[in-house]
Amino acid sequence: MKKMIIFVFLATASLVAKAQIDTTRIDIPMKDGKIFYEGIVETPNLTKVDLYNNAKQWFVDYFKSSKDVIQNEDKDQGRIVGKGIIFISRKDNGSKGDYNDEITIQVDVKDGKYRYRIYNMTIIREVSYNALTGQNPYIQFFAEDLINKLYNNGKLFLSKTQCRVVLQSMDVETTATIASLEKAMKKRDNF
Questions:
Q1: pLDDT digit of tens for each residue in the chain (191 aa)?
Q2: DSSP letters of the chain?
Q3: Which of 21, 80, 108, 158 is the most buried if burial means most Cβ atoms within 10 Å?
Q4: pTM > 0.70
C-alpha cells in the first residue's frame, strides 16, 4: 500500500513539473512575477572600498553620465542604485524596431564579494514624429508585458514573434551589461 501511495505521489509530481515547463522557449530570470537579474560574485583580494569605487566608475563609464544615472549611493552601506538605458534592436521577418530598456541597477559590495541586481525594466519605443504637436510620442510598457503576451494573457500591440525577439534581444543586452560590470569590478587600482 505504501508503495502505491508513493507511486501515485511521484506520478502526480512529475505531471505538475511538466505542466510548468516554459513554453516561451526563453530563459529569462524571474522573481515574484517580475524579470529580475541577480548574481553574487566572489572577488578575493578586493576590499569593500575597491569594489565600491569600481562600481561607481563602472556607472560613469557605461552610462556616460553617472550624475543622471546614480539615484542613491551609500558608501558606508556599500550600495549604489542607478537607472540606466540599454538599447534594444528587434529584427524579424523583414520588420524591425528599436527600443530603449530603462532599467534599475543595484550593486551591493562587501569585502571580497559583490551582488548585482537588475530589475524594473520598462521598454520605451518612439513612434513617428507628430507634426501637429511637434513631439515624438512614445509607447511605454513593462518587460513582463512581453511575457504575458506570449502566454496569451496580454494585449500588447506586438505579435508573439515580436515579443519573443524583443525579450531575446533584451536578455542579450542585459547579459552584456552584466559582463561589463563583472569585468570592471575585477580591477584593482594600484596607483
A1: 554 444 444 444 444 333 334 445 678 899 998 999 999 999 999 999 999 999 999 998 998 755 578 999 999 999 999 999 888 876 655 556 788 889 999 999 999 999 999 999 998 887 666 667 666 667 888 888 888 888 887 788 888 888 888 899 899 999 999 999 999 999 887 66
A2: -HHHHHHHHHHHHHHHHHHTS-TT-----EETTEE-EEEEEE-TT--HHHHHHHHHHHHHHHHS-HHHHEEEEETTTTEEEEEEEEEEEEEETTEEEEEEEEEEEEEEEETTEEEEEEEEEEEEEE---BTTTTB--EEEEEHHHHHHHHTT----SS-HHHHHHHHHHHHHHHHHHHHHHHHHHT-----
A3: 80
A4: yes
Q: Side chain identity at 34, as an amino acid letter?
A: K
